[in-house]
Specification:
Elements (H helix, E strand, L loop, with lengths): L3 E5 L1 E6 L5 E6 L2 H9 L3 E5 L7 H6 L3 E4 L23 H16 L4 E4 L1 H9 L4 E2 L23 E5 L14 E2 L6 E2 L7 E6 L4 E8 L2 E6 L4 H4 L4 H26 L6
Parallel strand pairs: 1-4, 1-5, 5-6, 6-13
Antiparallel strand pairs: 2-3, 7-10, 8-9, 8-11, 11-12, 12-13
């Protein structure tokens, strides 16, 4: 059985043929396509009042936190300033519970854009609510070039996990107006832009594996960019290893949800 990857979803409003609006659950197509290309089985996890987060995470082998609205500053003890964009506290609460439960069950995590920012917040870090709050930022992080085209380079820490896929001088695409400010305890910044914006964060210890990326590899992976596709193959591989480890622990009677 292929590893099952839970992909966090969102809610949007669409009109029907008569013009009456209705809400739909959705997730950007690139994520599910990339997971499928990488050899996994994608399922979309809608925003929920998750009193059953334990059961939801128990049926997936890995968790993919996707992009979207700004993370509410309430979760890192700040007031919303004039520069912040739209937030979705319901989505924040749902994904925070999913991430915490994935960590408790030792399921691997990949966070993309907002997903990376959420990882940092959940683990005790904070965000710049807008790029304008950091005077040292000089690079265009909300690119005007077509989404699948990489536009700025990154610097990669040697011997890091992401260094197995990307190297210093490689280019990435960029669509974010917030950046990591205070890095959460336990997380390592392992890639950054030339103006020192964190582009990748990691936590790999014991059976915990967390990777966050500020760029959008799903937009390149579906166009058969092998480097970007490798990000999702890595998640599927981590999920497969985690599943085997959990099954072994269950057989020995050591694993309990």
């Amino acid at each position: 059985m292929k590893p099952v990857i839970g992909i966090t979803g969102n809610v949007s409003q669409l009109p029907d043929n008569q013009g009456a609006p209705f809400n739909v659950n959705y997730s950007p197509l690139g994520f599910s396509q990339a997971i499928e290309k990488a050899g996994g089985s994608p399922i979309i996890l809608p925003i929920m009042n998750l009193d059953n987060a334990e059961a939801i995470i128990s049926i997936v082998d890995g968790l993919l936190l996707t992009g979207g609205e700004d993370v509410s500053p309430n979760f890192y003890n700040e007031e919303p300033r004039m520069v912040i964009g739209a937030t979705s506290p319901e989505r924040d609460r749902s994904e925070i519970l999913l991430m915490k439960e994935a960590m408790r069950q030792n399921k691997p995590i990949l966070g993309v854009c907002r997903g990376m920012q959420l990882i940092n917040v959940v683990l005790g870090g904070s965000l710049c609510q807008d790029l304008s709050e950091n005077e040292q930022i000089t690079i265009q992080h909300v690119q005007k070039t077509k989404p699948h085209h990489p536009t700025h380079s990154i610097i990669v820490k040697e011997h890091s996990h992401i260094a197995n896929i990307f190297k210093t001088g490689d280019y990435v695409n960029s669509f974010h107006h917030q950046v990591l400010k205070n890095i959460a305890p336990g997380l390592s910044v392992t890639a950054w832009s030339a103006d020192n914006v964190p582009e990748a964060i990691e936590l790999f210890e014991d059976f915990q594996s967390i990777l966050g990326l500020q760029w959008h590899p799903e937009l390149n992976a579906i166009m058969d960019n092998q480097q970007s596709l490798a990000i999702f193959k890595d998640l599927v591989d981590r999920a497969n290893k985690a599943r085997h480890h959990i099954n072994q622990q269950k057989e020995l009677g050591y694993y309990q949800i």
